[in-house]
């Protein structure tokens, strides 16, 4: 049972209504996470702005989705696992084996694997990574800017994981459940 109510976009007002209209126009729907975030237009707008900015970054949509899955598995967020598995497969074109492996921080491309492992390290160390941790991801070919983007992707996904775990958001994608707890 949800703990925070998802707003109905048809009856929303003010800034949340404006944001919902933009989401509807872009996606053809307003996912339950965003409907629930809309209880505070500041939360929804902050999420949308950071997500949009990172979408224009150097890492690309593919790595962004893989990072989202790695973080969601670490934070036991079934909503985000479900959403990013669907988006990764249907919209970005990532095969299911790659999506599944990303949840554990694994990828056949050593550079992608380094980014996923760095994300896991950030989470496991609560952001207090060592110089060696940063040097390892940079040695895989990431610039200082790209390392910053990995950190930002992790932060964005921690926001959505914590939000959905708090709200117990109804999953409106094919359900994928966390393998680890």
Automatic annotation (TrEMBL):
UniProt source species: Flagellimonas zhangzhouensis
GO MF annotations in UniProt: peroxiredoxin activity
Sequence ranges assigned to domain Carboxymuconolactone decarboxylase-like in this UniProt record: 43-85
InterPro entries membership: AhpD-like, CMD-like
Gene3D superfamilies: AhpD-like
Keyword Ribosomal protein applies: no
Cited PANTHER family: CMD DOMAIN-CONTAINING PROTEIN, SI:CH211-175M2.5
Keyword match Oxidoreductase: yes
Protein name (record): Uncharacterized peroxidase-related enzyme
Keywords from the UniProt entry: Oxidoreductase, Peroxidase
Domain of life of the organism encoding this protein: Bacteria
Pfam families in UniProt: CMD
